[in-house]
Amino acid sequence: MTKQNVVVSDAEAEIMNMAISVAVSNSSIFTAVAEKPPVGPPGYISISRKRFLNLKNLDSINGAERINSWVDSMRASSPTHLKSSSFLKEDQSSWILQHPSALDMFEQIIDASKGKQIVMFMDYDGTLSPIVEDPDRAFMSDAMRKTVKKVARCFPTAIVSGRCRDKVYKFVKLAELYYAGSHGMDIKGPAKGSKYKTGSQGVLCQPASEFLPMIDEVYKLLVEKTKSTPGAKVENNKFCLSVHFRCVDEKKWTELALQVRSVLKDYPKLRLTQGRKVLEIRPTIKWDKGKALEFLLESLGYANCTDVFPVYIGDDRTDEDAFKILRERGQGFGILVSKTPKETTATYSLQEPAEVMDFLQRLVEWKRQSIRAHSML
């Protein structure tokens, strides 16, 4: 097998690296290794990464070992496994020091944004809605919807999700937002009600349109191939596919990985990445949530502006692409939604969607107060 048959993502390689690190050093998986710090504004702190495997040498890994690495990565992404791990209290405390609560640091965040246009980017699952066993029932609360609607009145606001854009819209039901579905490969601007709308039809970007027939073909093959695995669910997100294994018995994960591999080996133009309890299959184009963030900023006229302050809130490994872009730009910051320590390039953290809503409400109230104060001058 050549490396064109199945492309293993950086995220998967990092999971393998992490496992080797633990085996070699017998230390916490959150132990930092000295590296050159990422480019970003003062105050940024991150957990650095050390790679123990060279991706260029993955050709030497045989099929069985590759499947094992997939399954190990699946275990590592499991919240159950994370909760059962024996993390020491000092690990949690150290992580929080490096990624403090965005609620606790709210005043500092506001100070950093003064004189700049805040632009809001948010993932959906696990950020605006709770993670649920059935992905078709990941409904956001009415209170969250009202809050997001208020945010969109104050700032340009986008939902950036791995889900199909139309499906995310059916969950959110707010026409005044920007929606970037399929990990940013399907972007459309507000249909109405936004003063930040860039044109009569809004922005529209579909960089992977040529892959649509292939995605549909692979979707049908995966549905057929995985139907013998109880709990497996294949979701067609238009420009990418999701194989959910949240409801699959862990003893069946190897079987599921083999089924996915047996299909993907014939499609070298598709690559495998991973999120929370889901295997993601995407075109091999250089496009992700980070690219979607850049495209939207450019569409809003903020491509080369120094007075823009992007804020990206997400809980998934795929959101790291956007966090990384913000660090490279030296503008704004990322907020990771997680109750457990994770390697991340986000600056701040929130524990769950309820805290996300609290943060958004405080942001709206601050904006309203600043407008009132300005009008009284």
TrEMBL record:
Transmembrane among keywords: no
Alphabetically ordered keywords of this record: Hydrolase, Stress response
Reactions that this protein is recorded to catalyse: alpha,alpha-trehalose 6-phosphate + H2O = alpha,alpha-trehalose + phosphate
Single GO BP term: trehalose biosynthetic process
Cited InterPro entries: HAD-like_sf, HAD-SF_hydro_IIB, HAD_sf, OTSB-like, Trehalose_PPase
Ion transport in keyword set: no
Pfam family, one: Trehalose_PPase
Position of the signal peptide: none
Any one GO molecular function term: trehalose-phosphatase activity
Its EC number(s): 3.1.3.12
Cofactor(s) the protein needs: a divalent metal cation
SUPFAM superfamilies assigned: HAD-like (SSF56784)
Broad class of enzyme this protein falls into: hydrolase
Biochemical pathway: Glycan biosynthesis; trehalose biosynthesis
Family, as annotated: Belongs to the trehalose phosphatase family.
Purpose of the protein: Removes the phosphate from trehalose 6-phosphate to produce free trehalose. Trehalose accumulation in plant may improve abiotic stress tolerance.
Protein name per the record: Trehalose 6-phosphate phosphatase
Protein species of origin: Prunus persica
